[in-house]
Amino acid sequence: MTAHPPPTPPFRDPSLPFAKRVDDLLSRLTLDEKVPFLHQFGPAVERLGVAAFRTGQEALHGVAWMGPATVFPQAVGLGATWDPDLVRRVGDAVSREVRAMRAHDDRVGLNVWSPTVNLLRHPLWGRNEEGYSEDPRLTSAIATAYTRGLRGSHPIFWRTAPVLKHWLAHNNETDRDTSSASVRPRVLHEYDLRAFRATVEAGAVAGVMPAYNLVNGRPNHLSPYLRAQLRTWTEEDLLVCSDAGAPSNLVDSEHYFDSHEEATAAALLAGVDSFTDHGTDSSRIVARVRGALERGLLTEADVDTAVRHQLSVRFRLGEFDGHDEPGAFDTPEHRALAQEAAERAIVLLRNEGLLPLAPGTRVAVVGLLADECKLDWYSGALLHRSTPLEGMYERFGAERVTFAEGVDRVRFRTPDGTFLHVLPAPEATASAPGAEGALDPALLAGRTDLPPLTQDPVGTELALVDWGEGVLTLRAPDGRYLSVAEDGYVRASADQPGGWVVQETFRLEPYGHGHLLRHLGTGHHVQVTADGVKVAGENPTVLEMTVVERGEDAVARAAAEADVVVVVAGNDPHINGRETEDRTTLRLPAHQERLLRAARTANPHTVLALTSAYPYAVEVSALPAVLWTAHGGQAAGTALARVLAGDVSPSGRLPQTWYADDRDLPGLLDYDVIGSRQTYLYFEGTPLYPFGHGLSYTSFAYGDLTAGTADGSVRVAFTVTNTGDRPAAEVAQLYSRAAAPSTTPRPRRELLAHEHLTLAPGETRRVTFEVLLTDFAFWDVAQGHWRLDPGPYDLLVGASSEDVRLRTTVILDGEPAAPRAVLQRGLPAADFDEQSGIEIVDRTKVSGDAVTPAADGTGELLYRDCDFVDGVTTVSVTVAGWGEVEISLDGTGPRAVLPATPVSGPYDYTTLTTTLTAEGGVHDVRVGLRGPLRLAHVGFSG
After folding, report:
1. Which of 265-269, 406-410, 727-731, 890-894 has the lowest mean pLDDT?
2. Cα separation of 923 and 58, whole Å?
3. pLDDT for 7
4. How far apart, in whole angstroms, are the C-alpha atoms of residue 361 and residue 573?
5. In angstroms, what CA-CA distances link 934 with 850, 905, 915?
């Protein structure tokens, strides 16, 4: 007899739709095989020929954590291009490098955890570098472009599967796993959800990652909006991947549940499909899921839902069809694109005629970042490197460029009269270990193969930099930074500061007639011993620091001898503002302010080139030229030099407001952009530079504005003309604002559309935007839905949110305002119009909102235009906890007081009722809260 091969199972049949193939494969898996799929590192199922699969590959602006790769500008720099086509091409290049690297290293994953679409609400957020903009529409436009590039152009298969970070309302590193963002419904719908929604609806998103923090008292990994909002935006199965360690946080730090089985079950039911916890060890997540199944907290159908979402992504990646793209790595096209992106990311903030630099200019390039090409936590290792100094050498010639870094050069004297000394590194150990890439670079240990610092009669001159707030780095003459490894010894061993816990930062603490040197990574002081310098918990060594040369003296000398000075200032992405650490001020560090003053005093022709992951508040009135760029990746120096020389006209635009002073900022944890007047949408002060700002080396004229409504949209058209003498790019921006006065606060202006266009000298182009009428709507808390307010709307066209060149007004039809139907639906507590001293909290652990007084135990809520129809006689409140609820009408004193008595827990609600006699008609209702109670609802009856 002839043996026949077994039939091809349906999940291997490419003629079937993905959904049917997923169903078939899912039906063949046993429960014991499915449960491990819920961990980030899912095992293979050999009997079915199913390979192992891992979620998660960092690729924010290039492939990260896997060794060398093309490094593009930071995400905030890509946002500053305002150029979706460019960003799509960057995403395309990154996805090709992912495929190419995976061909040689199967640790490289195809499920990429990028981009970050958290809005840059607050410029002190440590992870400002990861986002695109403070505006939801610009953010979604850039994020959509990047995800389309990551997805690839194949009609069926995806090159990579992008996951958006970090769901939802996440802008603080301070207490990030225990703090709660209080997000009112209008901010939720008009601001935080909007960026995610538009990006998901564009169709190139495979999933999202919940954030570490809580929103309205509930951890984001239990967000009810994953099901109620996210999964309604697309018919595709979306894969929700937890952030690293966040599932355990539900019990360990947040104490939201008593057991990990409860927490894991709740997260799975809320919509989390893949648990990133305990590194590559899946055993604990598997045990928790099995425990939840045994306790009846989960069913096999719940597990199937999550596994289905993962399998859907794997089918789209072509895993079960043998689809594998060869990719491309470090190609000439990728190198050229990295330079183009770096050039487009540069924003010219101020120019009093000094730029572009004239041919033959003698230039002093100075500053702590003048000869640096900094990387951040989500960068790959550099294949190519260009610093500002190198770029200027290349463009202007080394004979016309001088350099002064501006570090303070110091020696440290010990009590016995000797000095700290750095021994030379053996040549055989010159390269750092770990360059081959690591799935988690936080696990890379410091070097112990180099000799520790010692002491001798002369000592070693160290380069000291104060990065702000007394945080110092110390560098040996050969460029190695002082660092501390696990054995506690201090060595000159690091190429750059870095790591999850930075081991290259110190702080000088006055002590007697000298200083103690505290190592910030360990918290211990430096101790000089016979076998070397180390950190220890006791007996620190008192050191006397001698300044051999002040940084500003070197800068002043170089500046005085040049025609023009370029001061390159900014931040190190691993220090004072990064993941796990928010900034505390907008100011430049004092060390860099000293250098800037010295340069400006020595030479009035000073250009400030800020290279940073976030905005600064700087005094610019005495400076003839100021530029800003995010850390620009491998081609940053070349790009800056070409812009300074005028080879490229700057075309970047600010993706967020640059505030003039710390006093302009709300608290970091104040997420109410409406109530606290945050971002360009609501800020009423005078910014240092407004959202959308950016100058050019040419000029542009706007004209011939037309606007009209038809078929559910507003059509706006105008012309832009390059009136200068060089080709350049302009970003034409369209804003709107509701022109009629209203008690409902609306944005001062709101970006509707933009277009990045390059024009030759004298060229005119007509720009046309089609804006849906729904884009003019706002979330009406009184009705619980989006509503377009009828009436006049100003249309503002120009070069920034404040540089308006053309304007007109259109009259839009919409839904008239209606009073709150409080006799039918009462007042959901979180649907207030205004509040004072109130936080929104979770009504239950699953869904719903309540409100509670903030820290001082008192708060007030205002609900406008409540329709009592023919009158009311009673009021009821649904509360938990104890305290007092006061009801007032129309600004009068309390009309009803309802005392609440303690019950067993914060989710044990009771309904209290009392008399409240009020005549019919429309009234404003004020609700005062006193004490640690939660108010969920106010009801009225007549």
Report:
1. 890-894
2. 53
3. 87
4. 31
5. 6, 11, 21
Q: How far apart are CA 716 and CA 714, in angstroms?
A: 6
Integer Cα distance of 702 and 720 in angstroms: 5
CA pair distance 918, 493, nearest whole angstrom: 76
Count other C-beta atoms under 10 Å from residue 811's C-beta: 11
Number of other CB atoms surrounding residue 774 within 10 Å: 10
Sheet holding 401-404, edge to edge: 347-351, 625-629, 606-611, 564-570, 363-366, 401-404
Averaged pLDDT, 827-846: 98
Neighbours of 55 (CB within 10 A): 28
Rounded CA separation 186/171 (Å): 18
Q: Is the pLDDT reported for residue 171 higher than 50?
A: yes
Question: Could you give the percent of the chain with pLDDT greater than 90?
Answer: 95
In the predicted model, is pLDDT for residue 435 greater than 90? no
Please give the single-letter amino acid code of residue 803.
D
Which uninterrupted H or E stretch holds 341? helix 332-344
pLDDT in tens, 560-612: 999 999 999 999 999 999 999 999 999 999 999 999 999 999 999 999 999 99
Strand-strand pairing, 454-456 and 419-421: antiparallel
Q: Compute the distance between CA of residue 139 and CA of residue 57 in angstroms, rounded to an integer.
A: 21
Distance, in Å, from the CA atom of 614 to the CA atom of 74, rounded to the nearest integer, reads 11
Q: Across 537-674, where does the E strand assignment appear?
A: 544-549, 564-570, 606-611, 625-629
Residue 353 DSSP code: S
What tokens does 605 get?
A: 């022709």
Q: Please classify residue 42 by burial: count the beta carbons closer than 10 Å to its beta carbon, then call 0-12 exposed, 13-18 middle and 19+ buried.
A: buried
Q: What is the pLDDT of residues 315-335, one digit of tens each?
A: 999 999 999 999 999 999 999
